[in-house]
Amino acid sequence: MKLITRAICAAAICAVATTTLTLCVGKNTDIEGRWIQPVPGQPDAWQGIALEPDGKASSINMATLAYDTWTIEGNRLILGGKSIGNGQTIDFSDTLVVVRLSADTMVLRMGAMDLEYTREKCQ
């Protein structure tokens, strides 16, 4: 009888833990937010993308790459914006594959390169 009681208790705890985890992760795996990564060669500098709820996007610490829109189509993140440099501004659209998305990490694939971002913590 003790074995059956323990099994029932363990199953109940598992069910509660799974439900709590699913609710928490489901709520926090939204792609919206501020995603950052270290700037290559500059260990104390960060760059990234801000994805706002209304489809607006902006660059974080990237003056020459000005994102302004984003959309999701399946597992693809499409970023639109303007490339600014050498006295000219050019509209662009980048399509990236969302390889992984969790509450605090996003990995995007651009061609053969994977770009890993961390969700910026709320201040």
TrEMBL record:
Say which domain of life the source belongs to. Bacteria
Gene3D superfamilies given in the database record: 2.40.128.280
Instruction: State which residue ranges cross the membrane.
Output: none
Q: Which Pfam families does its entry note?
A: Lipocalin_3 (PF12702)
UniProt KW keywords = Signal
Domain Lipocalin-like, residue spans: 28-119
Q: Does the keyword Manganese apply?
A: no
First and last residue of the signal peptide: 1-17
The protein in question is named Lipocalin-like domain-containing protein
From which source organism is this entry?
A: Muribaculum intestinale
